[in-house]
Amino acid sequence: MFCSVHRYQTYKRYMLFLYSTYIPQEQPINNACLYAEQALIISHNGASGVYAGSTDLAYQQAVVDGANIIDCSVQMSKDGVAFCLDSVDVTRDTTAAASFMSLSTTIPEIQETAGIFSFDLSWSDIQTLQRKLCCYFPAYNLVQAIF
User: What does the pLDDT average to over 112-121?
Assistant: First the structure.
């Protein structure tokens, strides 16, 4: 049963919401066991806390970790090749800014800030990019640490 190993209160609230019309939040976490025999594990971008998201390594680790479903945001290259990446703006998750800054543009219907978009790069361009593992959060002066 999943209940003995699940550690997150968010899961508790979610499972209680799914499997009952009303259960007070004060009840112990094991009450979720009364309503479900096995958790459905959905992974967004693979094991992105271990490896850079949307990479083969992240997807393989998600399978090893027991994911039942792997959610992948699909983008399209200029030459029509579909690939998994969380955002259509490749500067967010990759090293695109270093090589393709001349392609930076603003498309207000997509995002307010300038970016380098997947549909402006060919598949061979996309394959030259490296994924970023750590993210910097300047508003809070935080760096995401991956252990």
Answer: 95
* CA dihedral (9, 20, 35, 37) positive or negative: negative
pLDDT at 88 exceeding the cut of 90 = yes
Q: Cα–Cα distance between 33 and 90 in angstroms, integer?
A: 41
Question: Which residues neighbour 29 within 8 Å (Cβ) at sequence distance 6 or greater?
Answer: 3, 6, 9, 12
Does residue 108 contact residue 77 with C-beta atoms inside 8 Å? no
Residue 82: what are its φ and ψ, rounded to 5°? -85, 140
Mean pLDDT of 127-131: 89
Specify the pairing of strand 69-71 against strand 42-44.
parallel
Q: pTM (2 decimals)?
A: 0.62
Helix extents (H) in 83-127: 96-100, 123-127
pLDDT at 23: 45
Euclidean distance between CA atoms 28 and 49, whole angstroms: 28
Q: Tell me: pLDDT of 84 over 50.
A: yes
